[in-house]
Amino acid sequence: MTTIWRHICLGLFCTGMLFYSGCISSRPQPASGASNERYWLGTYSASFNTSLFQMDKAIRAACKRAKLIEMQRINKASRCLYLYKDIDGVKINIEAVEKSVDNIKLTIHVGQTGCKVSSQQLLLAIDEELRILASNQL
Description:
Elements: H1 2-23, E1 34-40, E2 43-48, H2 52-65, E3 69-75, E4 79-85, E5 91-100, E6 103-110, H3 116-137
Antiparallel strand pairs: 1-2, 2-6, 3-4, 4-5, 5-6
Helix pairs in contact: 2-3
């Protein structure tokens, strides 16, 4: 009887692990300057090798180019929080956290449940703005 329960528990555990691994998608990285890109539970995150100042400028420029309306911006010592909305009223939360010197973790959440395609497009726009800023410094 105990072996039956063990098999049932093992089967449930394996099924749960397969379901959990399906929620995390690892795809080829679309942004050239980003690393550790990941989409999980509606939030798209990536790491960049840049300063928080450059990331702040790139985020604001990319959102301005996308014609997003800035609702709130909070800049702290090692963290920047942004709240934008688009023309349809969909809210976009962006957070840039400085993990170490010249290492920024960027998280993007579009809408209430998250939109992977929109998050990737915004990430690509931010990456492009970072490359433009880097080329202007040379």
